[in-house]
Amino acid sequence: MPSVLNIIIYILSAILRIIGLGILGAAMGWLSLDLLRKEAWQLQIAVFLGLAGLVIAIAFVGAAAVGAFAIGVAVAIFLWGMPRKKKEGEAEK
After folding, report:
1. How far lies 39's CA from each of 34, 35, 42, 49, 78, in Å?
2. Average pLDDT estimate for 58-80
3. Neighbours of 39 (CB within 10 A)
């Protein structure tokens, strides 16, 4: 029978795993967006396959962790992937 301390440590490790994969998802989303904007199509294919492989590898961790990773990637896409609205006084680059 597991002790109370083991249960607490297990719950804390699960929470830490979810938070860590959410942060990893945001970082991978930002890196993927940055690399996908480059010109070389070979790099774009490598980034896409690498991100797909990472999602497949994370699928064995657990459902909540995969969800946190997906939310992290989605947040990165919405924060850094969407085009910015230009203000009235801004010059075009």
Report:
1. 11, 9, 9, 17, 22
2. 85
3. 6
> Which region, left, alpha or beta, applies to residue 40 given φ > 0 means left and ψ of -120 to 50 means alpha?
beta
Cα 7 to Cα 19: distance, rounded to the nearest angstrom: 19
Task: Enumerate the domain spans of the chain.
Answer: 4-81
How do residues 9-44 score in pLDDT, each as one tens digit? Answer: 999 998 998 898 899 889 888 888 888 887 788 888
Helix, strand, coil share (%) of the chain residues, nearest 5 = 75, 0, 25
Do 59 and 12 form a contact (C-beta atoms < 8 A)? no
What 3-state DSSP class applies to 20? helix
Which contacts qualify for 55-63: CB closer than 8 Å, 24 or more apart? 58/21, 61/17, 61/21, 62/14, 62/17
